[in-house]
Design brief:
Elements: H1 4-11, E1 17-21, H2 28-38, E2 42-46, H3 48-54, H4 56-70, E3 74-81, H5 84-93, E4 97-100, H6 107-122, E5 127-132, E6 143-144, H7 154-164, E7 168-171, E8 179-180, H8 188-197, E9 202-205, H9 213-221, E10 224-229, H10 231-246, H11 259-275
Parallel strand pairs: 1-2, 1-10, 2-3, 3-4, 4-5, 5-7, 6-8, 7-9, 9-10
Helix pairs in contact: 2-4, 2-11, 5-6, 6-7, 10-11
Bound molecules: 1,3-dihydroxyacetonephosphate.
Length: 279
């Protein structure tokens, strides 16, 4: 298993790394197999809710097994965590990367808390992502509108990175989490400016669901280093499982009902990962 810094270094100039939210254990093997089939690294990220549902220890051991089985570069990352104690538990259990999300706090407090996380993580060779600005919307399939996004203020972002020494920073350039009511309007000038000046921390695009192929390629070309995709996997799984379960009888082998859903997860991981390639 690798941390973000290692993945950023090894993939510099080649690609952004896809960071996919796992929603249940059943879909996990397909995600890593998808990355392996393309020979690209993958970040598996868990919301604190998913981590609690599956269990930190089970996630760590499953990812270890699957990365060895597939001989794949995998990073296990805690997504959007606001609780420093949960972050420390994840690190102690074997996560290789964590995100402390203090974006709803005043900047000074966000910096102070993020520094505490960085101090704990760095001693244990774990990378840290922070967030400045507000990526609107909500996760888990909630429909949101683009008006919810608040763009990152570049001055705040520079101060944040300089003072916290994070490895990665989530910036708000117009994407929002979840399904879009309307097409995201991305601020590419802001991205260019951030990318030019923030050379010490990898830029992270949240809200990958609903971003068009052209916009996604442009984001990667302009310097996004990690791209998060969550809702698209959740939606696809529900659609496929719904259709398989609605045709099942009590004697249908349960495991067979997940096969089409898993196959689609693999396809999404591959399709998205291809968009993240620079060369
Ligand atoms: P989507 O659910 O919009 O793909 O966003 C995922 C994400 O950014 C998780 O942090």
């Amino acid at each position: 298993m690798k941390n973000l810094t290692e993945l950023f270094k090894e993939n510099e100039g080649k690609r952004a790394i896809g960071s996919f939210n796992v929603h249940c254990l059943e879909m996990l093997p397909a995600m890593i197999e998808g990355a392996k089939e393309l020979n690209v690294p993958i970040i598996i990220q868990t919301s604190p809710g998913t981590a609690e549902y599956i269990g930190l220890d089970l996630l760590v051991s499953s990812i270890q097994t699957l990365s060895e089985r597939n001989n794949a570069d995998v990073c296990l990352h805690m997504d959007h965590c606001t609780d420093i104690e949960v972050i420390k538990q994840a690190i102690d259990t074997g996560y290789t990367s964590v995100m402390y999300d203090g974006s709803s706090l005043p900047l000074e407090e966000n910096i102070k808390n993020t520094k505490e996380v960085v101090a704990y993580a760095k001693e244990r060779n774990v990378s840290v992502e922070g967030e400045v600005g507000s990526i609107g919307g909500a996760e888990d399939g909630v429909v949101v509108s683009e008006e919810d996004a608040i763009y990152t203020d570049p001055k705040d972002a520079y101060q944040f990175v300089q003072e916290t020494n994070v490895d990665a920073i989530a910036v708000a350039i117009g994407t929002t989490h979840g399904l879009y009511k309307s097409k995201a309007k991305l601020n590419f000038e802001l991205l260019e400016e951030l990318s030019k000046n923030l050379t010490n921390a990898g830029l992270v695009l949240h809200g990958g669901t609903g971003v068009s192929e052209t916009d996604m390629r442009k984001c990667v070309a302009l310097g996004m280093k990690k791209v998060n995709v969550g809702t698209e996997l959740n939606k696809s799984y529900i659609d496929n499982v719904n259709s398989a379960f609605s045709q099942a009888t009590p004697l249908t082998s349960l495991r067979k009902l997940f096969i089409p859903a898993n196959q689609h997860i693999k396809e999404i991981v591959k399709e998205k990962s291809e968009l993240f390639q620079l060369v």
